[in-house]
Design goal:
52% helix; 3-stranded antiparallel β-sheet; 3 strands
Length: 149
């Protein structure tokens, strides 16, 4: 992931020192880190957050690299890593009921515009729409400024 992509991902996730439940009810800490070791009352240092983020990025980078069969720009790859970080490492490959998600199906056909448009299919719950539109803009290499309600 590029340095800019890492910065955007950290901004999207925020840096949390105390475990909390995310919108899906998973215990989360650090920069969007989930796992069996995360539980209520857990507190991490910056070093622990950075270490977990590095491990998590390696997982999501590998997931994207193994699923995508067409060339990607750095922005496109970063956007897909951010998407996977948020939706899970299997979201691209198995997101739509066990088959490739709509983004990956379009992308691997070489339909980059269709892949960008398919980010719109992944805006549930509605609170995630701003993030997903940011990832779509990142994929397209354009700027996106979210509307603040």
């Amino acid at each position: 992931m590029t340095p800019q992509g890492r910065r955007l991902l950290e901004e999207r996730e925020d840096r949390k020192y105390v475990a909390y439940r995310d919108t899906r009810g998973f215990w989360t800490i650090g920069i969007g880190h989930t796992g069996p070791e995360v539980h209520e009352g857990l507190v991490w240092t910056d070093a622990q957050i950075d270490e977990a983020f590095e491990r998590d990025l390696a997982i999501f980078e590998a997931a994207v690299d193994s699923a995508v069969t067409v060339p990607l720009t750095p922005n496109q790859r970063d956007a897909l890593i951010s998407f996977s970080h948020n939706c899970g490492r299997y979201a691209l490959a198995y997101g739509d009921h066990g088959g490739p998600c709509s983004i990956l199906r379009a992308l691997n056909r070489g339909d980059y515009a269709g892949a960008a448009a398919a980010f719109n299919n992944w805006c549930n719950p509605p609170e995630i729409t701003s993030r997903r539109m940011g990832e779509k803009a990142q994929f397209l290499g354009t700027a996106f400024v979210p509307r603040i309600p």
